[in-house]
Amino acid sequence: MANLIPGFGAGSLLNSLLLADDRSSRIGAIYRIDYSEAIVLTHDRWKFDAGGIPQYSFLLATAHDINTPQVDDDEVLLLRVEGTAPLSMESDLHAVREESLRAALSSDQNPSPSVVLDMRMDPVTKNRVSFTGLRCKILGTFYEDTVDGQTVLEFGADVDNFYATSTYRVLKPVGEGLSTIASYLKPTDRPVERVRIGVVRYSATRRRAKASKQAASAVEVNIRDFIGHKTALLGMTRMGKSNTAKIIIARTFAVSETQRKAGGSPVGQLIFDPQGEYANPNTQDGTEIAAIGAKHVRIFKFGADGSEPHVKPLSINFFSENQIDAVQSLISDQLSTDDAGYVKDFAGTSYADVPGDQSASTHAQRARLALYGALIRAGFELPPQFRARINIAVAFQRTIVNQLGRNPFTQAGRPNIVAVAATDIEDVVKTIVELREAGNAEAVNFTKNVRWASVEPIFTTKSQGRNVRGWKNLNPLRPFHSPLTMNDPAIEIYEELIKGCIVIVDLHVGASAITKALSESITARLLERQTDVFTSGEEPPAIQVMLEEAHNLFSSDRYKNDRDIWVKLAKEASKLNLGMTYATQEVSGVAHQVKANTANWVVAHLNNTKEVRELAQFYDFGSFSDAIISSEDRGYVRLKTLSSPYIVPVQIDRYDSELVNEARAAAGDPPLHPNNGEGTAV
Fold it and tell me: Quick one: CA torsion of 234, 240, 244, 247, rounded to 10 degrees?
């Protein structure tokens, strides 16, 4: 090849990486060029020898002036085939083709297709009509540079010059040459960890690529591009988004374990799993994220009974003081069907103790007492030996004792700090309400705070003189309550994340309103803990968050609400060292601000022009619009990462036991047999 490309010696990096005989194949020449587009002249024979030239193929072009050897040509243009282009003598070629057909028809007097269409051209005519033009976009320029004394391959996303008098030879990269282009990463000061993610795939039809052994050029990415940044997985359902997510998760885990071994901090990964496809095996890949190992993967789900140490209950103890925020979130969601004013008051008030604020803590305790009474009325199972703490004046204690005819209080500190046994809670709350209604001044003072006022209608089923459902609305929440849960799952989840675990929140069991509220509660606690670390002047731990159905979380309308937990996640993720991978089939349903701050794009099949038009606003995805709509092959994507300077069409690898074993090896664990679960080390 070197003799065909004057100016490139055998030692040239451009030649060895891109232009060598085994890395590219000559397919034509440029006959018209400007700063953004090139028209390539090629021939049917050259296309056949090169294994075909599909649309979106990468091509290489290099210049050499046959009359002026001094012209610099130590650079290679990277082209992408966009379509066809008319040649300057196209009308003459059409005329030749037409005349040949007419001649065949006239000489035989037989108009049948077998005669007219199978006519034979003379070699000269056939050669003339075999030339075609390819319209190519110029993606940029590969050239050599010296960095720290070493020659490196650089890429500029434009053309700094072109020569009208030069002959630009055009080649189709193949094999390792194509892999070099598809896997090229921009030089960066950030860490680089190359991993394979798939192979180059130009078109849905792959017959010629396979026949010419050009269907296996690996595509590598810098997996660190995905850590701490936003990644969009876009495409219709069953187009391979989850498979891609699993690859990213497994590769990120391997990097995390490498960092841990080097004395660095690991990377935690939080996966919200609405369909159970990350926690459980499926027919697509035959394995699951959990196969990486029980030591490294934690699954939180409803109905967990503790039989598997790594599978933990997602249930909440509705009577636990340290879980009151999660309880409030769930109840608020459940009450939202009631249009009474108390619902809004309940959702907007805190019922947790406030350190350093005795008054706020006192009123929170009293409101919790009323809430516990409502939960008891709704049939929630009580924790063993449960007692509720309250701050209540001694005189009012005596009034309640006289009204009840028994003493429901036990001393829990100072005379006004008492505990109420579970069996007495409902009667105590009922008595307080009755005394207040009767005008008792002590009861009026006890219940005057907004916290009590917002909870009382749930207990009494009355609000501002009218009947409401109150505690009856809580019945659907009983399956999500466990009296044995000691801590808020959100706290436990965060603790697992900072250890570097993969945490899967399995939400495929449970009413959507409940799973939604739990997801928001977990995310709120994550943001709260990361913010605490950030504001203390320390570096927050690295955590990745995986979200499905992103159009429901980051819509334009929701993005206007700064208090929305998902909006806060999207806006604050970067500074809090939170990476975010979001998947959706509705590109237009995600707020523009989220997409504008997305570093990595994985785009599979979309089935309508509205979504593709929205996508076309970013990078040059518009060039792939027709293919994105027409190609429905699973795992066939257009990939743009933070380190890649251009979009690469890729067939994503399948997440399988081999990748699981790579992740396990990074953690120092033995491999698993491909067809069996953990414990079957080979």
Answer: 170
| DSSP E strand boundaries for 516-640 | 543-547, 578-584, 600-603, 636-640
Residues 96 and 89: their CA atoms lie apart, in Å, by 11
The contacts of residue 385 (CB under 8 Å, 6+ apart) are 422
- Model confidence at 484, pLDDT cuts 50, 70, 90, reads confident
Residue 159 neighbours by CB under 8 Å, 6+ apart: 35, 36, 77, 138, 140, 141
CA nearest 253: which of 267, 274, 233, 232? 267
Tell me: the pLDDT tens digits for 111-130? 666 655 555 655 666 666 67
Q: How far apart are CA 186 and CA 225, in angstroms?
A: 11
- As a whole number of angstroms, the distance between CA 299 and CA 279 comes to 7
Render pLDDT for 195-240 as a digit per residue (tens, 0 to 9): 999 999 998 888 877 877 777 899 999 999 999 999 999 999 888 8
Residue 104 has pLDDT above 90, yes or no: no
Q: What is the DSSP letter of 18?
A: I
Instruction: Judge residue 162's burial from the number of C-beta atoms within 10 Å of its C-beta, 0-12 exposed, 13-18 middle, 19 or more buried.
Output: middle
Rounded to whole angstroms, the maximal C-alpha distance in the chain is 122
CA 55 vs. chain centroid, Å, equals 28
Residues in Cβ contact with 71 at an 8 Å cutoff, skipping those fewer than 6 apart: 63, 64, 65, 163, 166
Check residue 411 and give its pLDDT.
87
DSSP states of 327-385 as a string? HHHHHHHHHTT--SHHHHHHHTS--S--TT-HHHHHHHHHHHHHHHHHHHHTTPPPPTT
Residue 519 structure tokens? 């997801």
User: Tokens for 521?
Assistant: 């509660």
Rounded-to-integer distance, Cα 211 and Cα 452, Å = 75
One-character DSSP codes across 133-185: EEEEEEEEEEEEEEETTEEEEEEESS-S---TT-EEEEEEE-HHHHHHHHT--
Determine which of 177-191, 343-357, 601-615 has the lowest per-residue pLDDT on average. 343-357
- For 571, the 3-state DSSP assignment is helix
Q: Which residue has the tokens 């269907």?
A: 215
Q: What is the mean pLDDT of residues 446-453?
A: 91
- In contact, 383 and 487? CB cutoff 8 Å: no
- Torsion angle of the four alpha carbons 246, 587, 628, 76, in this order, in degrees rounded to the nearest 10: -80
Indicate whether this model's pTM tops 0.70. yes
pLDDT band at 325 (very low <50, low <70, confident <90, very high): confident
With residue 28 as reference, give the H or E element that holds it: strand 24-33
Distances in Å between the Cα of 118 and the Cα atoms of 100, 122, 123, 126 are 11, 13, 15, 13
Question: Per residue, what are the HEC states of 301-315?
Answer: ECCCCCCCCCEEECC
State residue 65's pLDDT score.
52
pLDDT tens profile 516-549: 777 888 898 899 999 999 999 999 999 999 998 8
- What residues contact residue 672 under an 8 Å CB cut-off, 6+ apart? 291, 657, 660, 661, 664, 678, 679, 680, 681, 682
